[in-house]
Design goal:
Number of strands: 7
Shape: globular
Order of helices and strands: HEHEEHHEHEEE
CATH topology: STM4215-like
Protein name: DUF1834 family protein
Organism: Citrobacter telavivensis
CATH architecture: 2-Layer Sandwich
Structural class: alpha+beta
Radius of gyration: 19 Å
CATH class: Alpha Beta
Helix content: 10-25%
Number of domains: 1
Largest sheet: 5 strands, mixed
Length: 203
């Protein structure tokens, strides 16, 4: 049996995203509170359809998901850094009689304040303060039919890209693998099985 090769995670935004998630959780995550959400998590990318939003809102009154959209100005001076464009997707359903549109906009504002406060850069282990911060209403008829309101807060911020991470701590949708081919030959005869959603088995 072939031994699974080591996967070095340097050169990615994943560690930076986890730092942002942990910083936001302090102020924005909490159950049964109208000005908080049940879960703040890292996300794999942009949302394109209402069904994608629904899959991450099942059984929740609110959720925030953080995604790295692009990296510019990558440099390797005393460590690898890059200017990352981030998006925080705030998704909200009605909760204890409080309207979802008001809750969503309020939490989007709180998130923007959280990432722009004086202590934020150090708290998120960023190289400098967040800049070009925008908040956008992503309401659509499809989301309205699902009973969900959505805002996105986007910003740019420089982070280190060479901080290694523990893959076992990642959400299931980011435990990625591949059938690696070198010089036309697969490295392993058996491709890795990827659990892309919680509760999914390897069988």
């Amino acid at each position: 049996m072939n031994e699974r090769p080591e996967f070095v995670t340097l050169g990615s935004t994943v560690s930076a995203a986890e730092n942002i998630v942990n910083w936001l959780k302090i102020e924005l995550e909490g159950e049964k509170k109208p000005d908080r959400v049940e879960k703040v998590e890292r996300h794999i990318g942009q949302f394109n359809t209402p069904d994608q939003v629904k899959s991450f809102m099942s059984g929740r009154g609110g959720s925030i998901r953080i995604a790295a959209l692009r990296v510019r100005n990558i440099r390797n001076r005393n460590g690898m850094t890059g200017l990352v464009t981030w998006a925080a997707y705030i998704m909200m359903a009605d909760f204890w009689g409080y309207p979802r549109d008001a809750r969503c906009e309020v939490i989007a504002g709180r998130l923007a304040r959280r990432i722009s406060c004086r202590e934020a850069a150090a708290g998120m282990k960023a190289e400098r303060m967040a800049e070009n911060i925008y908040a956008e209403n992503l309401w659509s008829g499809g989301l309205e039919n699902l009973g969900i309101t959505m805002w996105a807060v986007t910003w740019e911020q420089e982070f280190r890209l060479d901080d290694e991470i523990d893959l076992s701590t990642l959400p299931e949708f980011l435990r990625l693998g591949a059938s690696i081919v070198v010089n036309g030959q697969p490295v392993s005869d058996v491709p890795e099985i990827i659990n892309v959603r919680e509760g999914q088995s390897d069988e």
